[in-house]
Amino acid sequence: MALLSSSPKSPAPPGYFHDWALVDVETSGLRPGRDRVLSLAILTLDAYGNRTGEFSTLLNPGCDPGPVHIHGLTPARLAGAPTFEEIAPQVGALLSNRVLVAHNAQFDYDFLAHEFAHVRSWVPVSRRLCTLALNRLVGPATPDLKLGTLAEHYGVRQEKAHDAQDDVRVLSGILRGSLSAAEQLGLSLPLLDCPPRQDYKPYVPKAPCAYRNPGRLTPGGHLVQGMKVAITGDTRVSREELIARSVAAGLNVMTSVSGRTSAVVTNDAGAGSAKLGRAADEGVPLVDEPTYLRLLESVQPGQAKGTARQRRTVERPASVPTAPPASTPSLPAQRTAAPGPSTAPADQSLTGRRVLVLGGTHDEAAEARARAVAHGASAAVNLSASVSDVVVLPGGEADRRMSRIATLGLRVHDADWLLAPTATSLPAPARSAAGSRSDTAAVLVRGAVIDLSDTGTAWTVAATWRQQTACVVDVVAFAVDGHEQVPGDEDFVFYGAPEHPDGTVRLGTDGPTEQAVTADLERLPLEIHRIVIAAAIDGAATFSDVGAIEITATSGIGAAPTARATLDAATTERTMILVELYRRGEGWRLRVVGQGYDHGLADLARGYGVDVAE
Fold first, then answer.
1. How much is the pTM?
2. Which of 51, 206, 203 minimizes the C-alpha distance to 113?
3. Domain with CATH 3.40.50.10190 in the chain
């Protein structure tokens, strides 16, 4: 089995030739560290597709096996299986010095990392490749990107879904087809660095504060459960003990100060710390440590937070224009990215088409993408099998992708083509060797809103870009209340804390230029009114250096996008709010924002009540 074609029309891009370790796990649940691996299969291949090793086993997890109706692994079947500790050396040898490959690779990698942590070791993998992320780049002509769908597309027979051994066999065929399609398009593989780590720890539940914030501490008054308390400066009781006692009493200990803070604990009111300065600005009362310890002895009962409620599915229009929500956070001065020539589709002459823009200045390319969207098309940031048309601006003819575009037979246009395209004058979209299909996702412009249906699965908002400069882009999320503030520090999800303790919001990274936020909207507490999803650049680069960012919204792993948007920030922004998910009645909506800021992540986070560093 050759992974690449024997006589490609163009040389394969660099990074295609590796020793591979294809992995699939069946698990007792969806939370790495809390749940355990029940079944593991590994298939190793060399760079030419030759099988070099194979291993599969059931595992005795020492816990309830979870959803038996899905994986069929009953306690009786697992009773005589080895533990992970017994097979860890063999698994480590198979993974070592190979690129780990899996479908939704972060899931499999994180479970393996935690299993190795349980036996005081680490997963010996330095890079991984997600075939789901790879096929998002390829854009095959399939209704979705689920394992079974891709297996059929690439001509692989699937015999038993949710069986690790069969899934890894199917994965080998999908990898072969995916690499061939990516090679044809000249794509760089989304290999993600994941250097060995030893800091994975077993899952420890951390319950957010269960009480609503009752407001400020009044002079001579009592502490009330749910009050937001910040601590600054040296304390006689250790900081860890003071926090533990506060949390045990039902208080919400924060690392930052905002207008919603109930009290700040300090033994030196004149210290001049950032927290004390913010407290002075907001009129937050100060209390010394002895007084605070005395108040902790008689904390008054608070009002419990509301819990997420189930709602019936309501049919709504696919796209509903609406005014932006009234409340906005207190943030530094902002700049708005140029909206382009239109804020709403002018016609539908390019509906179903995917347009890739090459060349031009940042502003010229942004304007061309906006014109394509105004005519009903979606704007692509990468060459994929779903691209139907290419617009070449000055300088674009030198783009290295032009040779691939010619080979694929895609239609190439100049900027004037976007001025007045009509349905009658346009032939059917060109078809590449990988196939083409009409893009059915709703195409959204800045400010557009859609209703998110209650599908019973979490919604994922993914951000993808084409790396044009050497910089790190971080996607983050803020789960905020009606005052546009995070109720607790855990409601800021970022690279250092990629999952909310209750699992309702989590950050995923599938490649060097793709990150996603997944939100289980129906499980969110009623106090959470909005999830703000943003991107920030670490360093001096700006979003004009990064280029356009494509946003997709999907419900379910591997599902077809429900909506997509392409955002072009202006010249100097280093942070940008991409999308907001917000409550509307009993349902949820998604609004495309595209609002850029010149400041960094620390300032953006501070506006929502979070200090990114102590």
1. 0.81
2. 203
3. 228-296, 338-440
